[in-house]
Amino acid sequence: MNVLINLIIKTCLDTIYMAGMIIFVGFILGFLRNHSIENFQKSFGWKAVSITAIIGVPIHEMSHAIVCLLFGHKITKLVLVQKRDENGVLGYVNHAYNPNSVYQQTGNFFIGIAPIFGGISAIIALMHVIIPQTYNGFINISMNNLHITKINDVSIKGILNSYIDLMKIIFSTKNFANPYFILFLFLAICISSHISLSSADIKGASKGLIVIFLILLGLNVLGFSKFVLAESILKYNIMLIGFLIVALIFSIITYFISLLLSLIKR
Fold first, then answer.
1. Which of 1, 76, 239, 262 has the fewest CB atoms within 10 Å distance of its CB?
2. What's the whole-number average pLDDT of the chain?
């Protein structure tokens, strides 16, 4: 009995190590997105939301669609952007899959969370094209953090300082004097306004997460998990946090801009 309990506890921890940070940040992004849209709506009505939706929603939906194809799902309908319907939906992807396929079932999780990584990838790609020096700084910081092999006070302090440095690089005086940076900032805000997960996304992702848990449980029962190094898991999470930080930065900026506009409008 104790062996079974230990296996379940270990599998829960493995699942948290793999997906916990994504889920945690996903909820924060959802909170910021909902309040940002609410503030924009109060300030300028749905026209303000529509402006961000023209850019942000297609990236959100294309992220779903691409991962659908990667996991062998059949896309039955794809609407990149539309006028808001009675449920507030601005775009959607309908897809079908084989419920007997473990691979396709697992794909539900990655399809559900795809907009987070699709949005982050789009922002980083824009950074590379529009403000390449800032992009180089971001990559250097991300690579330096991968040298960390264990978590302690020193490494945590180093990671936090690196992200503070990233903020300084992105929002430097030199960048604000660059008109291209203003363009980048506008596009990044549009993308981050629609980067979070909808309730349908979360529901779909939860199906895949259950399958991932069962796969990890099976691997733990067979003893394969001992071949996965703790250092590899640490590096995975450090890299993951680096990318999620980008989404959080621009979502927080979007929220505060929307809050400021709503206060001014009052």
1. 1
2. 80
